[in-house]
User: What shape does this take?
Amino acid sequence: MSRRLRVRQSQTVLPFGVGAVLDIQGESFVATGIGDWPRQRQPVESRRLADRLGVTGFFAAPAALDDRYDRPDTAGAPYIRFPSWLFCGSCRRMVRWRIADEKHGVRPRCPSCTPVRQLAPMRFVQICASGHLADVDWWFWAHSRRTPTERQGCTSREQLRFRVAERAAGLEALSVECMAKGCGASRDLLDVLGTHGLRCSGRNPWQRAGEAVDCTKPVQIVQRTAGNLYYPVVHSALDIPESDAPPATDQALTKRVLESDLWVPLCRAAQGPRAAVFRDLLKEETGADDALIDLLLAEETGAPLPAPANQDQPVPGRPDLSREEWVAFTAPVPPATRDFALRETTLGLDQETAEPWAGLQQRFGRVVLADRLREVRALSGFSRVSPDAAFVPADTARRLRWLPAVEAFGEGLFITLDRERLGDWEEDPAVRRRVAGMRADLERSFQQDRLRSCTGEVLAPRFVLLHTLAHLLVRQLAFESGYTTSSLRERVYARPEYDQYGVLVYTAAGDAEGTLGGLVRQGEPPQLAETLLRTIEAGAWCSADPLCSEHTGQGFGNLNRAACHACALLPETSCETGNALLDRALVVGGENVPGFFEPVVAAARAAAAAAVE
Assistant: This one.
């Protein structure tokens, strides 16, 4: 019976983008490189993101037509069957399935069984740190306990069976057996996971044999759905109106650079050997980055701007796009556009003098509701084995200057903290000691480079505070706005060098109509104040306390403190940092650290106790 397997257009970037394995209806496929995409792809506009990634533009996979009126489907993003080793659940025969064996709309079937049985994909594949993916050499595995001379005596490499023992359990019950005449070699899968001296294929399944490279990295055998098989590198940017006026934060930063005592010596030594010394000192003193210094030097001395480090391929790092977005949300509300509509509101507590409402009002600043947002998400590539392993671009042939992307529309809620109170709280020695420990763990983590693209060069207390507050707020909004936690996303603006101190919680769906307004409605007074108070109160309690609240390091790489699945973690698609750098104690207080909202929690408890009395 003919059937069609479909992938949503938004899923062609995440989670089933280039290099990812897709399990669907008992079959398994891998997404090919964008060099194999059809020409009928859809352009996605985001000049700001394209400039930061060094590409010419973005394209979305073509949307396939539906089945109405007998219209044929158009070609979408290509996927090929992987792994190619399949087995029959009835006779246990293993079959090496090739592209020539494919029939449109027909599942792979066992050639030996009557009635016909569907073939299932093998559960294990091999990967390496260079980003290569391939089938396990099951013939070698079955013969791996034979001597080289005995292996040479085997007459066939494809007569294999995938056996299941009746008197064993787990992987020990599974074995691969060679059915070649006179051979009978076999080995169970008890220790199949890990490295076994297998040779890397030097390519991915969609690449031709001529594209293979000589790879010497050790091969690991993993399950085809293992978490370390695919680490996508996804970039996202909000579509904000462009402004000719420089941001206020940039003006202040530019002024600090030009007024520095190091600026004139740097200009004089711009092409000399001492330029690097003056540049480093100036960056340390003012917080300016190389891009701003290069721009000012070009204006001052006429020196040409440096060319991008890699003009042919996008860099795997995550560019900082937060500065323009922060300015867009904190500047006077601009006129609404088709993809960006803001309106400013308040908590509605201006006249409140009773606690905890007065304390809540004092600790929050601006509230902006985004009735309309457009987000572009682009996939630049992926890695395997670990996030810091070799980067594989989405175009594995390295010929194209565009990236796959999707656009999503939605709504959002942007809030800032009170700047002065935040600054005073950050200067508390106990707070600084608490974050210093997290900073030390971050410096030891292999995720350091990726996370610093979110936190800035130095992890500041405000980032951990705002990040944790965003998680708690998303969890609370999931109860009150009608969205699930996986439907909500965060953007944390907490870089001290850009004077940022806010957070955006938003929802973005792959539909031109966006979402239905439930999130924005929760941001209107008086709902938002009540939601924030419940958020802070919920953060003061965890079902895993006191173990969670007193933890000195938990989560991946010990990058979290008082934060676990019971209180603060979100689906990883909702979090910028992959659920790292969280600590409830900085929000609500702990035994040895004052929380930014600790007085609000205490006042709320006192008010509740007084109401009971």
User: Anything to note?
Assistant: The longest strand covers residues 364-383. The CA atoms of residues 269 and 275 lie 5 Å apart. The chain has a mean pLDDT of 87.
